């Protein structure tokens, strides 16, 4: 599977209560089960008006399908073919 960064524009998501974030995660998980094994949610970063979500997926189309079914916008989808971290400097 390929790694993708999905940017979602969601007004005021950064100020959402924990219960709302829990409900959103549960809804996303329900859709992921429907689309399995072609997609996996790794993690998301929540900012003021956006989330940045990391997914492993067969292709971009399955991410768009997840967005359509869940109702969470996929404002920008970027494939991430390589990663680096502090340990990369030692390699």
Number of domains: 1
Q: Rough shape?
A: globular
Biggest pleated sheet: 4 strands, antiparallel
Low-confidence stretches: none
Helix and strand sequence: EHEEHE
CATH architecture classification name: 2-Layer Sandwich
Based on secondary structure, the structural category is: alpha+beta
CATH class: Alpha Beta
For the CA atoms, what is the radius of gyration? 14 Å
pLDDT averaged over residues: 97
> What amount of the residues lies in strands?
25-35%
CATH topology call? Alpha-Beta Plaits
- Portion of residues within helices: 25-40%
Terminal CA distance reads 24 Å
Name the CATH superfamily classification.
ORF SCO4226, nickel-binding ferredoxin-like monomer
* Tally of helical runs: 2
Order of neighbouring strands in the sheet with most strands? 2-3-1-4
Instruction: Count all strands and give the number.
Output: 4
